[in-house]
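re: that chain from earlier
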Amino acid sequence: MKEKISVIVPVYGVEKVLGRCVDSILAQTYENLEIILVDDGSPDQCPRICDEYAEKYPNIVVVHKKNGGLTSAWKEGVRHASAELVGFVDSDDWIEPDMYERLEQALTQQEADIAMAGLVFDYEDPGYPPRRETNRMDMTVYDREELAELFPVLLNDRSFIGRTIQPSRVTKLFRRKLVEKNLELWDDHVTVGEDLQMVFAAVLDAEKVCTIPDYYPYHYWYNVSSMTGGHDPGYLEKIRLLKQRMEVISDTKGVYDFRPQIRNDFLSLAIMAVKNEIWRNHTDSFWQVLKNVKQMCRDEDVQEALRNHTMDRIGLSVKLYILMMKHGWYLPCYVVTKVFFSLYYRMASKQV
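^ sequence. v structure.
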């Protein structure tokens, strides 16, 4: 029999779609699976649904825990896993039937530590076509030396959000040792980029990784609330925490100085934070929004990133936005953002 895989599913507030997720894992062509459902203190019927699945299927294990967030949930799942191979599926998503068979086959054939696939963004609104995302890696197999050659562009290739490695943990199969040894490095409080901190540390410890090109078995579900988004006044603090944790991981591993790339990634997210404040904040007055934007742009970490970033592969619009943020042109930031998103969503609505 093939080696067992533990598939960890953090569960919270998804009673309407949990069955779709679990059923897609049960339908896998890879038979030696252990499914660990981690109820993260879900306030709906998810705990009951999890228990019902465990009663019906002997390969399903349920862990009930106090709510602690996504990272704490999948970390708890790892602690309960019995297999040496570990995968992850989020409870509002689903996977193709051959996903783990193909990932395990690639991992075993290449004697790799991580096998990677791509994902599909599936929108609840049928008017939006699915969108694919994968790694921006040229080869299908990287040994340790070849992987090290990717380090200069691993987190940022000097473009806007220029991540060479697709950061989602759910599109990958890991040897458990890579996950287990890094549990303490992954901060439960990180809520933006939690997968990035996880995959980053694991990749730095890997001796070999492999990818399956043109394969998109993971379906990431975009519901209405995800699509329309919302104003998050704490977004800047969340990406600051991500930056700090990524720096800790980089320094702890000590295999390469990733700080310039981390700074570039932080600046990319900070630009998105400013745009979010302008476009999504429908509560505060115009003047308060401008004040908020001013505070964000004058933030010490943001200013440091604006001064010292190394992104030279960005378009004119991003260059202009960086210039406006750097020099305190808050009203132009406001106008440009409002005009851009108004035109963007108008065009999108016409296409739909």
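The chain has a mean pLDDT of 93.
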